[in-house]
Amino acid sequence: MGAGAHPLYRHDDSVVHRAPAEVKIVCLLVFVLAVVATPREMFWPFAVYAAIVVVVWRLARIPLRWILPRMLIETPFLVLAVLLPFAEGGERVDVAGLQLSVTGLWAAWGIVIKGTLGVAAALTVAATTSTTELPMALSRLGMPAVVTSVLVLMIRYVDLLTGEASRMRMARLSRGDSPRALHQAGAIAKGIGALFLRSYERGERVYVAMLSRGFDGSAPDLAVIGAPPRAAASQWVVAMTPAVAAVAIATAAWVLR
C-alpha cells in the first residue's frame, strides 16, 4: 500500500481529490445532516441528493463498478430495514399477499434511502482523501491533538493488524482448516482472541517506546507541522456547493410538505 493510501482511497488527480480535506469533511457532515433532516415522506428530495452524489462521482472520476461493491458495508442495516414492516405494529396494508405495517414500511424506506446516501457520500470522501490529509484536516477543524494522534496511530496499525489476520487465516488453511465448516467456529474464535491479545500487547509496546522517546501525554498540533496552506475562501465556496444545495433541498422539502 502506497504512502498516504488506505483500502478505500482511489488514486487520481481530480478536482475533488485536490480539494482541501477539511472542506470535504465539513461538506460531508452538512450533506448527511441535510439528508437525515429531510422528511421521509417526500421522495423527490432523495432523487436530487442521489443526483448530486453521482455528479460528484463524475467529477472525482469514480466509476460505479468501483464504488458500488464497497457500499455493501451497509448490508446489515438493509436487513434490519427489511424486517421492520413485519415487526412494527399499527395500521397494516396488503402487499403481494403479505400484511405489512405502514409505519414499518416508512421506517424501512427512511433507513434504506438515508443510509445509502450517507454511505455513498462517506465513501466519496474516503475515496478522495488520503490518510495523510485526514489528521491534519481534523486538527484544523479544532479536533484535540490527542484525538488526531490516536487516529494517526490507528490508521498506521490497522494495516498491520489486517495483514496479521490474513497470515493467521492462511496458516489455518494450510493446516486443513475449512472456514465454512461450522465445527471450525471454535478455532476461528480462538484466532480472533489471539489477535486481540497481540494487538493489546503491541499497543503497550508502542506506548512504552513513545515514553522512552520523551512522550509526555501531549500531542503536537498536526495542522502546523509541514502542512500545506489552509483552504482559501474560494475553495470553501466551490467545495461546499453540494452541501449548500442539500440544505436548500431539505428546506424546500419541509416548506412543501
From TrEMBL:
<protein>
    <submittedName>
        <fullName>Cobalt ECF transporter T component CbiQ</fullName>
    </submittedName>
</protein>
<dbReference type="GO" id="GO:0006824">
    <property type="term" value="P:cobalt ion transport"/>
</dbReference>
<dbReference type="GO" id="GO:0043190">
    <property type="term" value="C:ATP-binding cassette (ABC) transporter complex"/>
</dbReference>
<keyword id="KW-0472">Membrane</keyword>
<keyword id="KW-1133">Transmembrane helix</keyword>
<dbReference type="InterPro" id="IPR051611">
    <property type="entry name" value="ECF_transporter_component"/>
</dbReference>
<dbReference type="InterPro" id="IPR012809">
    <property type="entry name" value="ECF_CbiQ"/>
</dbReference>
<keyword id="KW-0812">Transmembrane</keyword>
<keyword id="KW-1003">Cell membrane</keyword>
<dbReference type="Pfam" id="PF02361">
    <property type="entry name" value="CbiQ"/>
</dbReference>
<dbReference type="InterPro" id="IPR003339">
    <property type="entry name" value="ABC/ECF_trnsptr_transmembrane"/>
</dbReference>
